[in-house]
Amino acid sequence: MTDLNFILARVLAWQVSVFEEDDEAYEIWRDVVGVKESHIQRMGAADNFWASGATGPCGPCSELYYDFQPDQPAEGASLEDDDRFIEFYNLVFMEKNRDADGKLTPLANKNIDTGLGLERMAQILQKAPNNYETDLIFPIIAQAAAMAGVDYAQSPAKVQTNLKVMGDHTRAVVYLISDGVNPSNIGRGYIVRRLLRRVVRCGRLLGIKTTEPFTPKLAQVAIDLSGALLRFVSPNHSDAVSIFLRTNPKTVSGSLLPRTTDVAVRNPSEEDFARGSEPTLLGFSQATATPRWRRTQRAF
Length: 300
Prior knowledge:
Layout: H1 5-8, E1 15-19, H2 23-33, E2 40-43, H3 45-48, E3 49-51, E4 56-67, E5 85-98, E6 104-116, H4 118-125, H5 138-148, H6 157-178, H7 187-205, H8 215-226, H9 237-245, E7 265-266, H10 270-274, E8 284-285
Parallel strand pairs: 1-2
Antiparallel strand pairs: 1-4, 3-4, 4-5, 5-6, 7-8
Helix pairs in contact: 5-6, 5-8, 6-7, 6-8, 6-9, 8-9
């Protein structure tokens, strides 16, 4: 990661969205922070009013977008343009409570719920074309490419997609196992199992030899990348490697998704990865680009 001043120095190149009725946030961005009015967009409740559910605490939010093409006109630009903008920060002003009738009342204790995406920040600071080609994930991809005997940069989109899946899912599984979630047939453990199977399947599609488990080498790269930063990874690294060792590439089924009736699911497409869509555990629904975990929270 490079100096955060790279972003702070370009504050005037940010695009900011505010809730359409939130004059206070608009004025703070304009008068205190110094963002040009042409870079502030008022948006409706669908985009800029956050709620945890049908009832409960909620409030307007303000989102920060980084502009990869600041030389282009800002006025009238669409923040949905993924080639130009990436949302990297979100501020939720928790001011209201919504009851079962939809009535909003002021919260007794107001607060600001804020969050920043690590992978997105890495993409911005490192000027990478997507999240996967940052130093958080790409070393795992490079290891997978080396085992497959391919050059990532010169590979076609389908090969790059398989490599991205291997990098993203290996990292996710290492974190989950280190946090005490082991592969199983139910609940969150089944998510780990499916992720492991997908890593193996992508490796087989790339022609990686399956005479012995190849996933431990990928796991070790993820551990080396994260061990110094995440305290729970290093103490449990032996558990992660042990589980990866027990993942037999010869017995993994080519079908990674069970037959279900709750929702139709597809693997992330080449287009999803090409535009740098967020890494997800279960892919995207066929009907929308909504990550599947948001549609099946009741399952786990």
